[in-house]
Amino acid sequence: MPDLKYVTYCGLYCRLCGHMARMPKQARELRESMRKEGWEHYGEAVHPGFGEFWRILARLGETDETCPGCRGGCGFPGCEIRPCAQERGVEICPLCDDFPCEHIEGLARTYPTLISDGMRMREVGLDAWISEQEARRATGFAYADIRHPDSD
Ligand code: SF4
Ligand code: SF4
């Protein structure tokens, strides 16, 4: 079995989440830009609470390395998919006989490529699927580009 570190139970790919794909770079750039202007020294005097913001901005700049991913506990705490897969002994939902179940169909209203991506995983196998997701990432794509804005 390939390394599933970035493959979520439901069949998303963590490195296409903005938390890994975009936010760290944006946070690092903002922090560096502000640092050059001296905000780390006078920020608290101008904006009370700045120190906490500054520390959080530093943490956000590292989430591509530090985020534990879906398998490590990141993601919606009330997710019903993860415990379902764990209880059934299913490593990834697209490999479940019941895929796409009603839970997956519900999540696909937010992530419109979820089911087709899962079918693609079945078709090409996990190694090739992961390579395809990395190729997608290299184009600058993130789920935020297609995520339905009115969904959870
Ligand atoms: S927490 Fe649930 S919805 Fe979120 S990535 Fe993991 S399995 Fe998918
Ligand atoms: S029934 Fe299968 S596809 Fe649906 S959430 Fe549970 S493990 Fe995933």
Ligand set: iron/sulfur cluster
Q: Determine the mean pLDDT.
A: 95
Helix amount, in percent?
55-70%
Name the poorly predicted regions. Answer: none
Name the shape in a single word.
elongated
- Count of discrete domains: 1
Secondary structure class reads: mainly alpha
Count every beta strand, where a strand is a DSSP E run of 2 or more residues.
0
* Strand residue content: under 5%
Q: How many whole angstroms does the radius of gyration measure?
A: 18 Å
The ordered string of helix (H) and strand (E) elements is: HHHHHHHHHH
Instruction: Determine the N-to-C terminus distance.
Output: 31 Å
Largest sheet: none
* Count of helical stretches: 10
Q: Explain this structure to me?
A:
The protein is mainly alpha-helical and about 150 residues long. It has one domain (about 15-145). Helix content is about 55%, strand content about 0%. It has ten helices and no strands. The chain has helices at about 20, 25-35, 40-45, 50-60, 65, 70, 80-90, 100-110, 115-125, 125-140. Helix 2 (about 25-35) packs across helix 4 (about 50-60) and helix 9 packs across helix 10 (about 125-140). The chain is elongated. The protein starts with 17 loop residues before the first helix and ends in a 14-residue tail after the last helix. The model has no long low-confidence stretch (mean pLDDT about 95). Bound molecules: iron/sulfur cluster (SF4) (2 copies).
Short key terms for the protein model shown above:
152 residues, mainly alpha, 55% helix, 0% strand, elongated, binds iron/sulfur cluster
